[in-house]
C-alpha cells in the first residue's frame, strides 16, 4: 500500500494531480485545498496518501496534511460517503472546521459540499459526533471564531466562543465545549452561563 509520495509535481487539474517519483507518474485525487497547496509545476511536493483497492482499480487519494487524510478516512466510514464526496467536503471545510461543525451539529456547513444533501449531512454529523473528538487537528490554516460560529446566530454563543478563544482554546475545542453547554442549558442560555458550563465540561 502506498502511504506517502515524495517527488515533483508534473500536472494538476480540478480534482487530481500527477506526481513524478523517480520517473514514475502517480495520479492522485485530491481536495481543492490540497491542490492549491502543492505549488507550481515542477516544484518538489510531498503528499500523504490513502490507497483504495477495488476489483477494477487502485485509486490514490493525496493530502497536504495527515489531519486531512485522517478526516478523509473517518468521513468515508459513513454510509453514502465515498472518496469523491469526502474530498468535496474537505474542499470546503478544513479539518478544524469539520470538527467544529460536527460538535455544533452544524449540518448546513457540511451540506455546502458538492454531492452532500441535507439528509447525508445529517447522517455525517450524527454518525461522527462521538468519533470526531478522537482526531486531533494539527497546524494548518487558522480558523476564526466567526467561522466556527457561522451556524448559530445567537450573540451569546458567539461571545462565549470568543471568550474561550481568548483563554487559549482551539476553535474546535471551543465549539465542542459551547455546544455541550448549550445542549445542557437550552437555546436561551446567556453568555455567562455558557462560559461557566463550557469551562466545567472542558475540565472533565
UniProtKB/TrEMBL annotation:
Keywords of this entry: Cytoplasm, DNA damage, DNA recombination, DNA repair, DNA-binding, Hydrolase
UniProt key word Cytoplasm: yes
Pfam families given in the database record: HHH_5, RuvA_C, RuvA_N
Taxonomic superkingdom: Bacteria
Region (Domain I): 1-64
Compartment(s) of residence: Cytoplasm
Main location: cytoplasm
InterPro entries to which the protein is assigned, alphabetical: DNA_helicase_Holl-junc_RuvA_I, Hlx-hairpin-Hlx_DNA-bd_motif, NA-bd_OB-fold, RuvA, RuvA_2-like, RuvA_C, RuvA_C_sf
Domain III: annotated segments: 152-204
GO molecular function term, any single one: hydrolase activity
Record domain Helix-hairpin-helix DNA-binding motif class: where: 73-92, 108-127
Domain notes: Has three domains with a flexible linker between the domains II and III and assumes an 'L' shape. Domain III is highly mobile and contacts RuvB.
Family recorded in the similarity comment: Belongs to the RuvA family.
UniProt function note: The RuvA-RuvB-RuvC complex processes Holliday junction (HJ) DNA during genetic recombination and DNA repair, while the RuvA-RuvB complex plays an important role in the rescue of blocked DNA replication forks via replication fork reversal (RFR). RuvA specifically binds to HJ cruciform DNA, conferring on it an open structure. The RuvB hexamer acts as an ATP-dependent pump, pulling dsDNA into and through the RuvAB complex. HJ branch migration allows RuvC to scan DNA until it finds its consensus sequence, where it cleaves and resolves the cruciform DNA.
NCBIfam families in UniProt: ruvA (TIGR00084)
Binding partners and assembly: Homotetramer. Forms an RuvA(8)-RuvB(12)-Holliday junction (HJ) complex. HJ DNA is sandwiched between 2 RuvA tetramers; dsDNA enters through RuvA and exits via RuvB. An RuvB hexamer assembles on each DNA strand where it exits the tetramer. Each RuvB hexamer is contacted by two RuvA subunits (via domain III) on 2 adjacent RuvB subunits; this complex drives branch migration. In the full resolvosome a probable DNA-RuvA(4)-RuvB(12)-RuvC(2) complex forms which resolves the HJ.
The protein's name: Holliday junction branch migration complex subunit RuvA
Organism: Sphingoaurantiacus capsulatus
Lineage: Bacteria, Pseudomonadati, Pseudomonadota, Alphaproteobacteria, Sphingomonadales
Gene that encodes the chain: ruvA
